[in-house]
Request: fold
Amino acid sequence: MTMSGYSSPECKEIRQLLGVYVVGAIDPAERAIVDEHLGQCQLCRDELAGLAGLPAMLSRVPAADVEWLDSAGTELPA
Amino acid sequence: MAGLGSAGARGSGRISSDEELVRALYAEHAAPLLRYAVHLMNGDRQRAEDIVQETLLRAWQHPEAIADRPARPWLFAVARNLAIDSYRARKARPHEVGEAALEMLPSTDDPERALESWAVADALSALRPDHRRVLLETYYRGKSVADAALSLGVPAGTVKSLTFYALRALRLALEERGLAP
Reply:
């Protein structure tokens, strides 16, 4: 886990955008901000590297199965 | 079923509470387990029912496994392992009649890949519901942050942070299953 090291206060905000960045949900203006920051911040690039392989893993499970898990998950005992 | 003998050998003194346990497990979990097993077996209901039977039998044989915790994750894990065993056994007998369901599996040429897909699904099933749901909206449904926020009824900032933490949780869950992205 690399959450501990921020090279600047900006990093905290950037880190929280990296999730929607790697899954492609980020809006274009924010994507530009993240891209610019990544160009100058090794720690955030490292954090990104830890997340970058996850969409490929997600792609191994059909969306319909995740829909099913989502509906079944609400029945899980507390 | 071969396992019945060993379960019955545990002694008649426990039969009544055992029966109550099985009845309770069946009432609470059989239907969702069967849905899951049908999914694992790619729609082969007969084999799915066998897996549910065997899973509940194992719960009966190992009541300590679910004594102090929610039973469902354990039951689902057992069902998944049985499905994998069944899949492997059938791969070892490629000429068995009735292979239609097996052929529906993704990447039949590569059983490891199919098993890996199951493991990813299992990791997703272990996530917090809000984490799983945000990934469903942003990744699987391809929604923008703004649209996901509308669907989920949370602020856009929450979608961003939830997605980030959901992915970190997923990475951990994958690592726990021996899958490093």
Remarks:
- Chain A touches chain B at residues 1, 15-20, 22-27, 50-51, 53-58, 60-61, 63, 65-70, 72-78 (CB under 8 Å).
- Residues 74-78 of chain A have pLDDT under 50 and may be disordered.
- The CA atoms of residues 65 and 71 of chain A lie 10 Å apart.
